[in-house]
Design goal:
By secondary structure, the protein is mainly beta. It has one domain: Sandwich (Jelly Rolls). It is 6% helix and 51% strand. Strand 7 and strand 8 form a beta hairpin. 25% of the residues are buried.
Length: 175
């Protein structure tokens, strides 16, 4: 009986840390991609706060058919079949954001989920299997995220309105 209990404990999957922001964070694999790639005028930025949190902030502009800013984190492909939820500790500004994932950073489509922020520090939970595929705002006729491998995560704001934004990030894990 003790052996069964020990085996059960050993087979529990430990959380996988995707990123933990701190004052010493290496941001080399984080990239801001704004609507300027399509002629827009939005401007996002990533910085580290005094407290050691990632701060994705800026302004979304609708000029020149713009309307989004995104923050992407690319990494070596990770096997994630044993995980079902992405947890993110963050503090937003009361606005709606998208969380996106890619199996391959070179795919043109992403799997997305929307989340609302409260203005307070909170931990949001996104079931990976609920993330659906989109390309340029259009839902694709494909299955939801298969959660086998992961190579990129993205935060995006694009609410069809000109607005300033600020999203503070503490950590991102898979469970």
């Amino acid at each position: 009986m003790i052996l069964i209990y020990l085996l059960a404990i050993l087979t529990v999957t430990q959380p996988m840390q995707l990123f933990d922001f701190s004052n010493n964070s290496d941001l080399n694999n984080w990239f801001v991609v704004d609507d300027g790639v399509m002629g827009g005028r939005s401007a996002g930025n990533l910085s580290i706060s005094k407290e050691g949190h990632g701060v994705f902030s800026g302004d979304v502009s609708l000029e020149n058919n713009g309307g989004f800013s995104s923050l992407r984190y690319s990494f070596e492909q990770k096997e994630i079949a044993n995980f079902s939820v992405c947890k993110i500790r963050l503090r937003g500004d009361g606005k709606r954001y998208q969380f996106r994932v890619k199996q391959d950073r070179y795919n043109r489509y992403s799997y997305i989920s929307y989340f609302e922020t409260s203005g307070e520090w909170e931990t949001i939970e996104i079931p990976l299997s609920s993330m659906y595929p989109t390309f340029r705002g259009r839902k694709l006729d494909m299955p939801n995220f298969p959660k086998k491998v992961l190579e990129e995560v993205t935060f995006l704001i694009g609410n069809k309105t000109a607005e300033s934004f600020k999203l503070e990030l503490d950590w991102i894990i898979l469970e």
